[in-house]
Design brief:
Blueprint: H1 9-31, H2 59-63, E1 67-76, E2 82-92, E3 98-102, H3 108-115, E4 124-130, E5 133-134, E6 141-142, H4 145-155
Antiparallel strand pairs: 1-2, 1-4, 2-3, 4-5, 4-6
Length: 156
């Protein structure tokens, strides 16, 4: 037996590298839900929830919306009036990969200070809209995996 023990330095390095690779693979699989699916996302914060102008949430009113989708905000106009969403899944009213909607008052840091949860570029949402305008006050929310399933069933 040499000073490196019963296993020489090269096999020990390979064993260490293999173990590190297995740990990394386990972390990746766990982050993907174990079977390659996306990990669950928790959110569900209503846009504009701090606004005094919010009406009481009514599921029937949500179902009456012309548009409903799961999407990521990819751009906002300089004046904060227009929001461009990449659509991941349509629940109602569309089939395009992108949509531009009026989002007056829901964009930017000023909006967040005034109304609570505001739209932010790069974030994912569950959006409902009518007449080309994003609805707030619980009718549009930050993305949540469980709520996305509920919306799919609700809008079925």
């Amino acid at each position: 037996m040499d000073r490196n023990g019963p296993i020489g330095p090269a096999p020990r390095r390979r064993a260490t590298a293999t173990a590190a690779l297995m740990v990394a693979l386990t972390v990746v699989v766990a982050a993907c839900g174990g079977d390659g699916r996306e990990a669950a996302v928790t959110g569900g914060e209503p846009l504009g929830s701090a606004s005094a102008d919010c009406m009481v949430f009514d599921e029937a009113l949500l179902l009456a919306q012309e548009l409903a989708f799961d999407g990521t905000l990819v751009a906002a106009s300089a004046d904060g009036d227009q929001a461009t969403f990449e659509v991941h899944n349509w629940y109602r009213g569309g089939d395009t990969a992108e949509i531009v909607l009026a989002a007056g008052g829901l964009l930017g840091t000023d909006a967040q200070a005034l109304i609570g949860t505001a739209l932010e570029v790069g974030e994912r949402y569950l959006i409902s809209a009518s007449d080309g305008v994003v609805w707030a006050c619980g009718y549009s929310l930050t993305y949540d995996t469980g709520l996305a399933v509920e919306w799919a069933e609700l809008f079925g």
